[in-house]
Amino acid sequence: MSRANAAEVSGSRGPTSEVVYIGRGALSSMIHERLVKAMGDRRAGEVFRETFDRFGDNDIETPQDLLDFSELLIRSGGLIQAVGRSLKVQALLRGAMER
Fold first, then answer.
1. If you placed Cys at 23, which of 28, 53, 67, 70 could pair as Cys (CB 3.0 to 4.6 Å)?
2. pTM (two decimals)
3. CB atoms closer than 10 angstroms to residue 8
4. Positive or negative: CA dihedral 79, 49, 73, 64
5. How is residue 79 annotated by DSSP?
6. Residue range 15-32, pLDDT digits in tens
């Protein structure tokens, strides 16, 4: 195999998956799964990461945390807002209180 062909073969494939940080806390994976269902892996990871940064690097452990996180999603508008509203209902059903 020539050097040119070897370079083409070795450079033709990048990583097949990206590592997605989905935050900390018992409810983080549930939030991420909802986002993935609505907008796919890549966009869900971006939205989660951006929202988690605005959330203040806190764990998402309690229904109240879920409610607070969902409120941030709702402020984003569009499809993200719809997911946020769904998560807000889940938080309220689990005992969170609107402030």
1. 28
2. 0.77
3. 11
4. positive
5. H
6. 445 555 666 788 999 999
